[in-house]
Amino acid sequence: MQGELIVFSGSSHRELADGIADQIGMPIGSARITRFSNENIKVKIDENVRGADVFVVQTSCPPVSDYLMELLIMLDALKFASAGRVTAVLPYFPYARSDKKDESRISITARLVADLLQAAGADRVLTMTLHAPQILGFFRTPADQLMAHPILIQYFRQKDLSNAVVVATDAGSAKFAGYFAKRLGTPLAVIDKRRTDDSESAHSVALIGDVKGKNAIIYDDEIATGGSIREATRILRDFGATEVRVGVTHGVFSGNAVETLNAANLDELVVTDTVPIPTAKQKAMKNIQVLTTAPMFGEAIKRIHEGRSLSEMMET
Where does the chain have alpha helices with state H? Predict the structure, then answer.
């Protein structure tokens, strides 16, 4: 049995961390984070954590590298304060798209982040919907991946699905989209998407499956610039889809994503709160719904603390 359960929060997404702590029924642990004029960061843990089972909530969002460094410093501070076990809770894993060596002379940065977290003192990692599941293999310590499927499925089950079809934005996401379609009881279609450079844009060139006269639900793990969703929406409407809705885990919304997604004229855009969406950006987006992941993370933290399984949480 681990020591006392304590949840700390970094600066990246305090609203989500507060929601997680509320689900567990406890306050956020006391810590001070100071940024000096030379851009150095200082973290001071303001309560006794000796022997405690500590969880630190810090997601990946701008400024990504600053928040990553802040997390590493907090993990190190907790280890030096004699915490019994420290778990890094990363709702959106930093540098998750850099998961393989697909060019010469590049870093597999997701693996580097895994090494950094372990070197800083993380005994365990908890994250959600990785862009590539093999990232879990980069860790030499326990690492758990929650999936947002149950949250999104529960939401879409409240809709009329009698004429719905789930759509994967590319072949790589077809496996998870297929799982999503199976749980919703709908057919699956797959878009053939080609990416040719580092511009973060992709071009949809073909469609496998029937969407004519149907209500399409695009499933993907994240939205960055929104270009892929815009292209997917275009091809779905070209092939006769009557409605296009989107369900994704991570709403990154980088660059001109707001304008790009608004131009796509989606009937609904559903994301979770793994990444904070600024109020102004959220108000500017058409037909957006944000679902909270706090109950799932809160339950996962309690199960880890008590030594219980996480797998049954993924059943819907």
Answer: 14-24, 64-80, 109-120, 149-156, 174-184, 227-238, 257-264, 279-284, 294-306
